[in-house]
């Protein structure tokens, strides 16, 4: 029964009102040419064409993860595969992170431009060169930031949209430990360009709250992993359904490349080694290699093999629906919150 649960949708315990969701029009939906202010950001070994196309076809923005592909020509093939699956806008993520053997970012960037991609999500350190390159080619640039000061820099460098990543996010949350409850209103005060919320996002109440806090949309990663179209093993999806907000932990803090991952025996071993050998990446390299969780995601479904990114939004994940069902449910719930819970609190005009 549990395995079946991980492969198909079921009715959540608290379903939103039924009916067609309204269209929430924001600066982000207008700029990106999408129907719903919902984005599936880049995810290593998850962001392939089938998921990106499914999100875009459902009215959001799907994203292919460039560095999941072994080289730039493989990325070209993945982009072309996605074009066959959707005629709607989709983006490509290019993440700039510390690596012992950095990839050829330039060749990936060239393919993104050559293939006519109109939207790129950048993330990581020193993005100026790449933002400039993409802007000169006419792309819309979404830059992911974990701190408002970084967002202000990205704005100055020419980014069009900021993805504010709170400490609740899966993957790399930065080292400043500031959550979205503070990041969003601070960003709303300081930024001139639109921003979206990212980190711990999974339902319509959060979308409504994010809009009230000044965001113009919501990015989800882990929640989209638990969809029918996500190209990962059913056991991983089952783990996300069965997990809760306490099912993640942090590794690589001693090397200042903190990553939020699923709480398993491998993560515990990494933490043990880091305590004994702080700052020595070579001691943990064999355990944190992305190849380990690539194998888990695509082949074995072993949730204890390697460390793999996911977020505490597991506390909100109760099913594995299609992207379309999930997104319509989120927008309908946000509409219900805004119209039936927030609006009635406001004084009525006497005019």
Report on this structure.
The protein is an alpha/beta fold and 351 residues long. 42% of the residues lie in helices and 13% in strands. It is built from 15 helices and ten strands. The strands form two sheets. Strands 1-8-7-6-5-4-3-2 form an eight-stranded parallel β-sheet. A two-stranded antiparallel ribbon has the order 9-10. Strand 4, helix 6 and strand 5 form a beta-alpha-beta unit. Helix 3 packs parallel to helix 4. The longest helix has 20 residues. The chain is globular. The N terminus is likely disordered.
Provide a brief overview of the structure.
With 351 residues, this protein is of the alpha/beta class.
Structural class: alpha/beta
Q: What number is the mean pLDDT?
A: 92
> Strand percentage, roughly?
5-15%
Number of strands: 10
Determine the number of helices (DSSP H or I, runs of at least 4 residues).
15
Biggest beta sheet attributes: 8 strands, parallel
| Rg on CA atoms, Å | 19 Å
H and E order: HHEHEHEHEHEHEHEHEHHEEHHHH
- Shape call: globular
The strand line-up of the biggest sheet is 1-8-7-6-5-4-3-2
Q: In whole angstroms, how far apart are the ends?
A: 58 Å
In percent, how helical is the residue content?
40-55%
Low-confidence stretches: 1-19
């Amino acid at each position: 029964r549990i395995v079946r649960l991980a492969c198909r949708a079921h009715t959540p315990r608290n379903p939103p009102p039924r009916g067609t969701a309204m269209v929430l029009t924001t600066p982000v939906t207008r700029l990106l040419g999408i129907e719903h202010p919902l984005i599936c950001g880049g995810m290593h070994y998850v962001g392939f064409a089938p998921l990106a196309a499914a999100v875009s076809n459902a009215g959001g923005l799907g994203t292919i993860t460039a560095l999941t592909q072994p080289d730039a020509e493989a990325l070209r093939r993945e982009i072309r595969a996605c074009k066959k699956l959707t005629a709607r806008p989709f983006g490509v993520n290019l993440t700039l992170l510390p690596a012992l053997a950095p990839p050829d970012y330039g060749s990936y960037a060239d393919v993104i431009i050559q293939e006519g991609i109109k939207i790129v999500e950048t993330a990581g350190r020193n993005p100026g060169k790449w933002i400039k390159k993409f802007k000169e080619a006419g792309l819309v640039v979404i830059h992911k930031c974990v701190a408002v000061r970084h967002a202000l820099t990205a704005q100055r460098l020419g980014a069009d949209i900021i993805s504010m990543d709170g400490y609740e996010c899966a993957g790399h949350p930065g080292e400043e430990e500031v959550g979205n409850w503070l990041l969003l209103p601070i960003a709303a005060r300081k930024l001139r360009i639109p921003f979206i919320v990212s980190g711990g996002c999974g339902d319509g109440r959060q979308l409504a709250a994010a809009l009230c806090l000044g965001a113009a949309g919501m990015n989800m990663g882990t929640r989209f992993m638990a969809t029918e179209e996500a190209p990962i093993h059913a056991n991983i999806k089952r783990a996300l359904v069965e997990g809760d907000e306490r099912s993640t932990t942090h590794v690589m803090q001693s090397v200042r490349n903190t990553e939020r991952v699923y709480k398993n025996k491998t993560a515990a071993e990494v933490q043990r080694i880091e305590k004994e050998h702080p700052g020595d990446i070579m001691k943990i390299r064999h355990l944190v290699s992305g190849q380990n969780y690539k194998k888990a995601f695509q082949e074995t479904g072993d949730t204890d093999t390697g460390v793999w990114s996911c977020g505490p939004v597991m506390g909100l994940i109760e099913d594995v629906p299609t992207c379309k069902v999930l997104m319509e449910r989120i927008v309908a719930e946000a509409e219900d919150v805004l119209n039936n819970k927030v609006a009635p609190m406001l004084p009525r005009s006497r005019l």
